[in-house]
Amino acid sequence: MQGQLPLVADRTKQILRRSEPWEFSTWKPEARKDDTVGYPSVVRNDRGKNADGRYYLYFSHHDPTSGIACAIADKIEGPYRKLKQIDSTLEHSLVLVNPHFPGKEGDPSHYSSPSVVWNEAEQLWFMYFHYYNHYHNAWERDPKFPGGGNQMTALATTPDLTSHQWTIVEDKSIGHVSIHDIVPVLATTTESWMYGTSSYHAMQQLPNGQWMSFLRGTDKVGLCSVGFARSDDGRKWELFPQNPMIRPTSGPDKTLGIYRPGFIGYLGTNAAGKPQYLVVWSESRKGADVPRVRYGYTSDFINIQPDRRGFAQWSGGDGLISPWREGNKLYLFAAKHLHIITLPGISR
């Protein structure tokens, strides 16, 4: 990319709409009014078994008793058809069904915020997603497990996207502290910024083969911060000791901001041969939650230089931003929408 990423999208269109019973909250009638379907993660099925070259969009909502669903398109811009639209004999479009589905009033169970990545070494698709841990009190009391354990990030795998069969990584030995025996691959921590929840993470593998997680942590009072973690295999993660990142350490915004991870983009190497990365996140104020997207630049994920132009003019939503590039177009999936940006200095 020659020059800076534009702040304004060329086009924006809605690609997700609520249309199935599971996409409604199962908690209380007033919650059912809000359509929270979104949290998209898009991959092209060009790897692994039965690669068909189509685009698979995984999505959820964030009300009880959400699971993870799938929609498929022949082209990156869509239209995306949910599994039940493709096969009317299916009960729903879910590929991961929450065990408490269809739920009941007062039950906060949910699976949400998928992030799907191909693992070449294992020849598996990895789906990271977060789950509500009913056993968080037991988790917090047990000295072997860090943080509050309320909402944490799990992992499911499949060798074949067309099968729609995903296997969640589980361990019965921790079933007394983690609901459904789920292994949290990115758990809460003893550090205050990620003591409450460890969720909504954006996952990717860098060109050098290292796995990187752009993290979102929530403290005990509901403030969200971002940080980073690295991994050699996508299963065992090491959090950066400098976390949290980006949030001001002083001034009026120190205790006000809600920071959410978007995505990481590789920009090539500089004159000194160091890799350069675009880091995209969103910011808002607690009590006035309107996420505004911000760009930054880094070579080490420790020193991040914010883009001096200020905020972008397209919306990032609540979850991660799923990027896809084809030619000179950057396709950004966020919440219910697809934003399309023309990259400067790149031919079609």
What does this structure look like?
- By secondary structure, the chain is mainly β.
- It has one domain (11-342): Glycosyl hydrolase domain, family 43 (Tachylectin-2, Chain A, 5 Propeller), CATH 2.115.10.20.
- It has 2 helices and 22 strands.
- Strands 2, 3, 4, 5 and 6 form a 5-stranded antiparallel sheet that branches.
- A hairpin with a 7-residue loop joins strand 3 (55-60) and strand 4 (68-73).
- The protein is globular.
- The mean pLDDT is 94.
Query: Would you state the CATH class?
Result: Mainly Beta
Q: Which fold does the CATH topology refer to?
A: Tachylectin-2, Chain A
Radius of gyration: 19 Å
Largest sheet: 5 strands, antiparallel
Tell me the quaternary state.
single chain
Alpha-carbon distance between the termini?
12 Å
The tally of strands reads: 22
Main structural class: mainly beta
How many domains is the backbone divided into? Answer: 1
What count of helical segments does DSSP give? Answer: 2
Low-confidence stretches: none
Shape: globular
Helix and strand run? EEEEEHEEEHEEEEEEEEEEEEEE
Percent strand equals: 35-45%
CATH superfamily: Glycosyl hydrolase domain, family 43
Topology, please?
Elements: E1 11-14, E2 38-44, E3 55-60, E4 68-73, E5 81-82, H1 83-86, E6 94-96, E7 111-119, E8 124-132, H2 136-141, E9 151-158, E10 167-168, E11 197-198, E12 202-205, E13 211-218, E14 224-231, E15 238-239, E16 257-269, E17 275-285, E18 288-298, E19 305-306, E20 322-326, E21 329-334, E22 337-342
